[in-house]
Amino acid sequence: xxxxxxxxxxxxxxxxxxxxxxxxxxxxxxxxxxGTVLAELxxxxxxxxxxxxxxxDRALAATRRAQDRGITATAWSDPSYPAALAAIxxxxxxxxxxxxxxxxxxxxxALVGSRAASPHGLAVAERLAADLAARGIVVxxxxxxxxxxxxxxxxxxxxxxxxxxxxxxxxxIYPPEHAALARDIEAAGVVMSELVPxxxxxxxxxxxxxxxxxxxxxxxxxxxxxxxxxxxxTARLALDQGRDxxxxxxxxxSGRNRGAHGLLRDGAKIVENADDILEELGMIEKGxxxxxxxxxxxxxxxxxxREDPVLACLTPGEPxxxxxxxxxxxxxxxxxxxxxxxxELNGLVARAGGGRFVRS
Length: 360
Known about the structure:
three-stranded antiparallel beta sheet; 3 domains; globular; Rossmann fold; 15 helices; alpha/beta; about 15% strand; single chain; Arc Repressor Mutant, subunit A
């Protein structure tokens, strides 16, 4: 693991304060080496040189702990890094994962909601997750109590995959009572974090991980969210990232649904079943057979893509980032990633490092 190019420097960047991450990401996208970016950011701090030695020691300790616990480190520059996540403004510099990594390569939808959800909200989360998973969609959530854990369980019961994004290190399961659930998720999906192994679940980490939940997903579905719910943070981040936001309507008397109803008033699509989500994403037409029936994504042939404007602006051997693809193709950024994923599933494009795509 330690042989991955620049891994130590990227881990060092992840250990800096969160307000430095976006600046660092912009510099990396501009082509600056991670070591140079790290050195420049440390030079701005009073104890920069002494801090560099500490960061190097922590990075080494993190890689050793990961190896001991079966955790894989995936650098932002690695071609296997999820392209959708690499494209956000402040992507994690390193992903620490446990489980079946192929879940990160498939279309995903996030289901989020209240930690104190009603029995009805839990049932809705389980049913939606099971139906999506049965159709080859990976369900993303945060392993929290309430809607999150119901969504993970539903996806597993539906025979599919699910991704749990933690607000702690990938080896520190929080809440502790979800340890067994985390083991089940690893068998068919991924438990992951941007935080180095051994990091405890501090309050500041949970809002930060919400951008990863939305960044991995093509859409975010909100189930039972109050006016100050953390799920609304995820929804706002999803909109900023060009993702679709949908919401499940609920009881108007309990107060549990005010946040979700606010999203509906602002234009979020109503979700009553999994087909509503797939239709919004353009993955099925109303009343049509799902694009990804029972068990995963199958190739549909290349004929429908011959005149595709996204494919036409890509060249074999020349990786291109999302901004350039959007400018060349004229496709709106909100619809660009879904189209690229469809082209990838049909073997026509491939992902390169740093959120770029190349024609196969």
